[in-house]
Amino acid sequence: MALALAAAIRRGERTCLAVAEEAVRRARTSKLNAFARVDATATNRKLPDGPLRGVPVAVKDSICIKDETPTAGSRAVGSWKAREDAFAVARLREAGANVIGSTNCDEFGMGSTGETCQRGFTRHPLDLRRAPGGSSSGSAAAVASSIVPLALGSDTGGSIRLPAAWCGVVGVKPTYGRVSRRGLLAYCSSTDCVGVFARSVEDAAFALGLIAGHDDGDATSSQECVPDYLSMLSIPTNDRVASINVEVDDDIESVVAGASNALKADQCDALSPQFLRDCAAAYHVLAAAEAHSNLARYHVNHENPPFGAEVTRRVALGKRLLGERHAEGLYERAVDVRAQARARLDDVLSSVDVLMLPVAPTAAPKLNAPSVITKEARGSLARDLRDDLPRDYANDFLTAFASLAGLPALSVPFGRTSGGLPVGVQVVGKAFDEAAVLRTARRLELIRDDALSSPARRVLLSEDD
Ligand code: GLN
Question: Does 159 participate in catalysis according to the annotation?
């Protein structure tokens, strides 16, 4: 893992060169299609002396790396090269991290499975026929398959939490504005967040601490000071936890119920499945409208930009929402839903510290799984949008509300389905209280690891194997 590897390098047990060579070789030879590019120069770089010196990291291909083209999984970006590193990439490099390449993602972040990537889909590390989750598919797969211990992703409506849950790694979406968006190709600017993937909560907390903080180059980045997340993990906690009940697959329900019991969580009745669905529908209205304006820049060079089907559909929807469908007031309704969601969540989070719920209704599905819209498209906004919702809309309905309200949220692996697929638990907190979210995740991680090392559990595991 990242901090342990950095310590081994500092002690002279591993060399930066050997670590880089191994990561580059594994990124190149992996069957997962997690990487869009692997940087050959990673093996002969002089790395600054910092706390992550020599630790290989991967970066979602919608986040700029100096002198590279961030394709965002799209042919539409062309051959333009970034003049500088994104803010978060620069912070990791200053700490001595070694950026070994860019990872595949759904085109411009639009998708939940990785399948809209124009460079082909990424595969799930435990089952090549399954989707790793998206849109930050390659970053999650690269961390889960131990090619790198840390990766950057972006989460607009769930794109870090979902692949983290499906691949069995920790994935953190910070509060909106906590991490600068400078150097992130925009999808839905009002909810886009840069965050991290790691194999432990400690690594994730440490990496988040490095990339968080104000940036003069991003007017929406916050001035709030950044606490030492890592040392806050060990503070004894009285954090009050409430769990939101939703209908999900039995395997998912039992893992999340186990987490909820272990933390003695209260039940939160103020946030109904209907509320979550309205938030997801509102998110898709706002995301399509903002995508339409953000992606207009790619029309400059192409009369018909070579977007894939999903992006084309969403940009066209955004155009209609701001144009001919404007009369139906869908955009205004979505703005209202966002305001109400913020107020409702502020209220709920005034009496508890964190909320807990599943990340998605199922574990990693087979690639090319059939549409799951119909079952989930209830609620008035979703009904009016029915034909315009993405095929995998159901995978957004447990994550979009936190994005809409700009709240910090993460997924921590807590169990497995009967078929052995990872199941993540989602923890959502108050704005700028990443510490409570991380602390809760750390408690869950300790409970999980304790259970794994108990004799009864060891027998179960060897039987599973
Ligand atoms: N699945 C959601 C969407 O397609 C969220 C994606 C994201 O967070 N980038 O918009």
Answer: yes
> From the centroid of its chain, how far is CA 48?
28
Structural domains of the chain sorted by starting position, each given as residue range(s) with its CATH number in brackets: 1-465 (3.90.1300.10)
Count the Cβ atoms, other than its own, within 10 Å of residue 372.
17
pTM of full prediction above 0.85? yes
Stretch among 125-139, 172-186, 246-260, 376-390 having the lowest mean pLDDT: 376-390
Tokens representing residue 364 in the block: 């990693």
Best residue among 159, 294, 310, 395 to mutate for probing ligand 1, ranked by most atoms within 8 Å of CB: 159
Residue 200 annotated in active site: no
SS3 at position 123 = coil
| CB neighbour list of residue 437: distance below 8 Å, 6 or more residues apart | 172, 354, 408, 409, 410, 427, 428, 429
Angle between helices 309-322 and 330-348 (to 10 degrees): 100
Question: Exposed/middle/buried for 452, CB within 10 Å: 0-12, 13-18, 19+?
Answer: exposed
Q: For residue 336, how many C-alpha atoms fall within 13 Å in the half-sphere facing its CB?
A: 6
The atom number, within ligand 1, closest to the CA of 156 reads: 8
Place of tokens 């005034």: 350
CB 135 less than 6 A from any atom of ligand 1: yes
Please indicate whether residue 60 is annotated as part of the active site.
Answer: yes
